[in-house]
Automatic annotation (TrEMBL):
Gene Ontology cellular component list: cytoplasm
Keyword Chaperone in annotation: yes
Name under which the protein is recorded: FAD assembly factor SdhE
Localization per record: Cytoplasm
GO biological process: succinate metabolic process
Major localization listed first in the record, in broad terms: cytoplasm
Origin organism lineage: Bacteria, Pseudomonadati, Pseudomonadota, Gammaproteobacteria, Oceanospirillales
Similarity comment: family membership: Belongs to the SdhE FAD assembly factor family.
Gene3D superfamilies named in the record: Flavinator of succinate dehydrogenase
Keyword Cytoplasm in record: yes
Length: 84
């Protein structure tokens, strides 16, 4: 039950109020998050604690996170919307 509650919290916090972020984060948390390895799930949980302005800059590829863990999860999310 705690896992279900935690997952619902993640879905809720993935809604950022900025359409560009919502379109990336909500589908990612619903479709990809459950199958991620635990380390990447932890990275995502850290990511959603970041400021919207930082997230927007990272996802619009205007800058990169300094933290390599955050950079990895940003890359995973971007790969879902920009496959090679």
């Amino acid at each position: 039950m705690t896992d279900d509650r935690e997952y619902k919290r993640l879905v809720w916090h993935s809604r950022r109020g900025m359409l560009e972020l919502d379109l990336l984060l909500v589908p990612f948390v619903k479709e990809a998050y459950p199958s991620l390895p635990e380390a990447d799930q932890a990275r995502y949980r850290s990511l959603i604690e970041c400021e919207d302005n930082d997230l927007f800059a990272w996802f619009m590829q205007r800058s990169r996170p300094e933290d390599p863990d955050l950079a990895r999860i940003v890359d995973l999310i971007l790969q879902r919307v920009q496959p090679d």
